[in-house]
Amino acid sequence: MTEGLTINEAAETTGWSPRMLRYLETVGLIEPARTGSGYRVFGPEHLQRLRTLRELLESFDCGLSDVAFAKRLRADEQLRAALDGWFEARVEQPQGMSSADWLTWEQEKHQRLLALVDAA
Amino acid sequence: MTEGLTINEAAETTGWSPRMLRYLETVGLIEPARTGSGYRVFGPEHLQRLRTLRELLESFDCGLSDVAFAKRLRADEQLRAALDGWFEARVEQPQGMSSADWLTWEQEKHQRLLALVDAA
DNA sequence: CCAACCTTACCAAGAGTTTGTCAAGGTTTG
DNA sequence: CAAACCTTGACAAACTCTTGGTAAGGTTGG
Predict the structure, then answer these.
(1) pTM for the structure as a whole
(2) How does pLDDT run across B44-101, given as a tens digit for each residue?
(3) Claim to verify: residue B92 and residue B113 sit in the same structural domain
(4) Are residues A80 and A52 part of one domain?
(5) Torsion angle, CA of B55/A64/B68/A86, rounded to 10 degrees?
(6) Which nucleotides of strand D lie within 7 A of protein CB?
(7) B1 located within any domain
(8) Distance B37 CA to D26 C1' (A)
(9) Which residues of chain B neighbour A97 with C-beta distances below 8 Å?
């Protein structure tokens, strides 16, 4: 107990409600330690993280699901690759390509992306 | 008109509804060209992109807002840096640091992150 | 000029997210 | 041991996202 705060204490100092602290855990954004009997224990790192998260959400006007997705993006390399590929699809034609070549090239690129997607 | 499909034709060949094609544009995921009078024109690249997007959403079980956020993440370097910093917050102490040093170091890291966030 | 398109702007149903509250029960501590 | 915590689970209000529809009006092509 000397090594951290309980959920209500953590709520007090971070501005999150106890309910939200539990919710943040279920969506995978924090992982407080537990005592032998199952009580959550919030250490200084957690408290800082929680305060920073508030700032971050407000400053950039985004939601928890956005941060959760960003986390998923870091963990799932295939997802990242698939999205990168999709975004990179460009609008201009590469130099020296005919319209027909371009279309073929573009379709093949998407074929490759689809193959990647199917593997997921 | 010979250079692309109208919205209903594009809907037909991509599986998206015309309504959704307009919605995808409002959330920034596609940018069809326009005729002089304002009609949307979907070229082959758009059609491929739209088909790939369907596959991508289904394969990875994610939503449009997720893809939109991923796009924002690519465009907004500060947002990316802030999230990277937040995720990198580690749980173990660096070697050779006392508990007190670690806490100070950790707090300072978050101070730096907060400064970044404030600048946004 | 008329039918069949297209545009934007709304209203609304359904689903998912966020948040609170309450209930039933275990833990800690004075 | 009793008060004051904590746990999980469920129900629900408020909100946003997704999607469809419809209305009022401009464009196109036979």
Answers:
(1) 0.83
(2) 999 999 999 999 999 999 999 999 999 999 999 999 999 999 998 765 445 545 545 5
(3) yes
(4) no
(5) -50
(6) 5-8, 17-21, 26-29
(7) no
(8) 9
(9) none
**B15 domain-assigned:** yes
Do A12 and A51 form a contact (C-beta atoms < 8 A)? no
Burial class for B1, CB neighbours closer than 10 Å (0-12, 13-18, 19+) = exposed
Residue of B nearest to A105 (CA): B45
Interface size A-B, in CB pairs within 8 Å, comes to 109
| Regions of chain A where pLDDT drops below 50 | 1, 91-93, 95-96, 98-100
Facing B55 at nearest CB: one of A52, A87, A117: A117
Is residue B15 pLDDT above 90, yes or no? yes
Phi-psi region of B28 (alpha: psi -120 to 50; beta: other; left: phi over 0): left
Q: Is residue B2 part of a domain?
A: no
Helices A44-59 and B77-88: angle between axes, nearest 10 degrees? 170
CATH number at residue A24: 1.10.1660.10
Min Cα distance A115 → chain B (Å) is 10
Is residue A2 in a domain? no
- The boundaries of the domain holding residue A102 are 76-119
Q: How many domains does chain B have?
A: 2
Mean pLDDT of B26-50: 96
Q: For residues A20 and A46, state if they share a domain.
A: yes
Neighboring chain B residues of A113 at a CB cutoff of 8 Å? 52, 56
A69 inside 8 A of chain B by CB: yes
